[in-house]
Design goal:
Elements lengths: L8 E6 L4 E7 L4 E7 L5 E7 L2 H6 L5 E3 L5 E11 L5 E9 L12 E8 H14 L11 E3 L8 E7 L3 H11 L3 E7 L4 E7 L18 E3 L5 E9 L6 E5 L9 E5 L10 E5 L6 E3 L5 E3 L2 H17 L4 E8 L18 E6 L4 E14 L3 E8 L5 H8 L1
Parallel strand pairs: 9-12, 13-21, 15-17
Antiparallel strand pairs: 1-2, 1-5, 3-4, 3-22, 4-7, 5-6, 6-7, 8-10, 11-12, 14-20, 15-16, 18-19, 20-23, 21-22, 22-23
Helix pairs in contact: 2-3
Length: 382
Amino acid sequence: MLLNSQVSINIFKVDNTTFELVGEVNNFSSLMWCDKYNGYASFEIWAPITDENAELFKKGYFVWCGGDTAGIIEIVKSEMDENGNKTFNIKGRTLEAILTTRIIWGTYIASNKNVSTIMYEIVKNNCINNSQTNRNIPYLECAVDKFLGDKISLQKTGDEVYNVITDVASSADLGYNLLFKPQIKKIIFEVVEGVDRTAQATTAEGSEVVEFSTDLEDILSSSYYSNNQEEKNVAFVQGEGEGADRVSMVSGDNKLVGFDRKELYVDARDLQSNGTDENGNAIELTPNQYKQVLWNRGNDKLSECITIETFEAQIRVSGDVQYKFNKDYFKGDKVTIKDNQLGIMISARITEVEEDFGEEYNLVLTFGYSYPTILQKIKRQL
């Protein structure tokens, strides 16, 4: 994104038959744009009510402010303050939210494949190359697989594509984007892995160590949150069968004892060794392959029950700054943060970026993974 004086808000109409620029918002008072390493983020625009803006702010239109990210207008609200000033308040989510509109149609099976390969296959099978062509999403393509993450086995039936790939990516510390490419009229799904720019890491060639510190006045304000109320570290997983004959596996660290041990039961009866996949092909897993699938389900559930630790900081962006966003560091990178007032020194991944283009430009970074909302907690229990 550019600074407020230079930022432009372009509106596109993108539907099943159309991919075109509708116009540019020349009159707005504020823009708040968020971007996440893993999953969709939100944006919000405040602009006066004019005939021109009324033509541009329509639900379903795409908002693009340069770069590779774009958002979809989902909420259009008009307000009038005590002085009679009429204002549009526009809200929406980034393009990753498109993946909430598709489910895994049937059963998806993967045995000993890289996490990124699994993510690409799920998106291709359900959003791009499906035999039911009405399920395919126009303009969507997949980037080249770089085989990121460990090799795992996975079986999923009927879940939302967005939920599955977000959980799988999170378990492997990977991220993903839906890149907006208006010049070639494409939306590209890409799995990514941020660069480790911490002092402890051996950085890649050309990568410099990035360290934010209150002592150096990089951090204007900050907040720290840690919560281990829902932490679990050993999962007992039971799959198909009845009673004592049910197939079982243990995920996590089964060597933990005493107060260090926190157990979780996982009912994985939905996972089957025999059946039919989403393409109508017969499924027949060996006993070892089926146990691997159970083990991976346990790890997925354990990844939802970790100690949550986040650090949010407003970063100084004016004056003689050491590091510039999208030049020296990027969303998804690991960096070092020192806050002597809070007594914290952590190496953490930049999981969310919030840019505020109002009277002044502000940049807020979230490190680690944000604590779950009530809605997210409810979804995890279903």
